[in-house]
Structures are given as structure tokens and as C-alpha cells.
């Protein structure tokens, strides 16, 4: 994910590789782990038909940050991504250091919620945990993000199970087993997108299934991917099961 639009000091993400060489596995391996990306206005206006043709089957688009910023690319990305056949999710760049969880969740939903629907093309929303320095109104980061999730889930009668994005070392290590969100783990460890694991460094920070390599819902493998239809770099992501299972388990129905 991209850093905050404000100038802030963040903990460094785990992983030192500036780029990751991904050996593309063929056939069944790709089918088992559909390729995903995440985008914001930094990617401009992707040609989503080309993105789909290059193998991307799901994506997340930045919607908001805190209670002060709407991403200019959100509406374009959600509408054009879905039209191209990509399963689309929305995300909020969290500011637990500044804002209460309910205030931020309300702000996110008021802007993003119209595109999180039971249209067969929407997947559960995500909150991006990259800023440290406090958890306003709550005793821990876990409590803050659980509250954000509960508030977002209250916006629809349709079942949703939000996801939290954080690095395998920092971020995930600041959560506890009481965290109710699914895990999207960032770790640029050089392992193959189709066969590797994001918990290579820090499996005991795995709040879903502690001290194992299991329990991840998404894995951000690289920040320097290249995809047709997008000018410049884009984050590359993996889902551990098949596309049909992603739609069944992560989609709004």
C-alpha cells in the first residue's frame, strides 16, 4: 500500500527487497492462487480490460484515509475494474493515532459503501494498518481495529468479514489473537507468489494461527510488480485458494 498523504514517520515494514523476482508457475498453481493487485490514485487510470487480460482476477482500491481524505481514483477503479470482470474490494488507510474507530469507519462507509454491494463483483472491505503511535479511544490496536470492523459490518444486513492489512513483522506483531479481522500479510521475502508463504519471518506474530504458516487470507508479495494496463509499479498479491473460493468466501452475497 502507499504511505499516508500526510508526512508521518512509520515503522519500517519487514522485508528489505526492493523488488521480487516472481517465477510464474503454470496451470494448476495459478488456478489455486489467483493473482491480485491493490491500487490507488498513484496508479492513475488503469486500463482494466488489459489488467484482466494480464491475469489479474481481484483487486482492492483505496477509498479513504482517516476522516479527511477521499482517494481520487476510487470510483473509477471500482466501476471499471468490475466492468472488466475483476472482483473488487475497497480499503481505508487507517489513522488510529488520530481518530476513533467509529468516526473513521463512518467516514469510510459514507464514501465507499455505495460500491460494496451484492452485485457478484464485490469482496469484503479492508483496513490498512501502517501508522503507529496510538489507538485513540481504545486500549490497544486490536480493540481499535475490532471496533472499526464492527462498525463497518453494521452498515449492511449482508454478512461481511473485513480484512486487516499489515506487515508480517510490524503491524501483525501489534495485534493479538483477539483480533476478529482476516489477515492480509505483507512480506516481500522473494518467495514464489504461487507456492510461498508470507509468514517466513514472523510466524509467531500470526494472530490467526500462532506460530504456523497458516491462517492468511491475502499476501502482498511485491510492491514493484508490472501489469499490462498500468503505468509504473503496482503491488502484487496472492489469495491461497481458487478464484471460485475467493468469490464464495470473500464475496458479498
Mean pLDDT: 90
Shape: globular
Report Rg. 17 Å
**Euclidean distance between termini CA atoms:** 27 Å
Name the beta content range.
15-25%
Q: Considering DSSP H and I runs of 4 or more, what fraction of the residues is helical?
A: 10-25%
Task: Please describe what this structure looks like.
The chain is α/β, with parallel strands linked by helices and 253 residues long. It contains six helices and nine strands. It has an eight-stranded mixed β-barrel. A hairpin with a 3-residue loop joins strand 2 (56-65) and strand 3 (69-70). Helix 4 runs parallel beside helix 5 (141-153). The longest helix has 13 residues, at 141-153. The radius of gyration is 17 Å and the shape is globular.
Summarize the structure in short:
This protein is α/β, with parallel strands linked by helices and about 250 residues long. About 20% of the residues lie in helices and about 20% in strands. It has an eight-stranded mixed beta barrel with strand order 1-2-4-5-6-7-8-9.
Q: What characteristics describe this protein?
A:
globular, alpha/beta, 8-stranded mixed beta barrel
List the helices and strands and how they pair.
Elements: H1 28-32, E1 35-39, H2 48-53, E2 56-65, E3 69-70, H3 74-83, E4 87-93, H4 101-112, E5 126-128, H5 141-153, E6 163-167, E7 182-186, E8 216-225, E9 234-238, H6 243-250
Parallel strand pairs: 1-2, 2-4, 4-5, 5-6, 6-7, 7-8
Antiparallel strand pairs: 1-9, 2-3, 8-9
Helix pairs in contact: 4-5
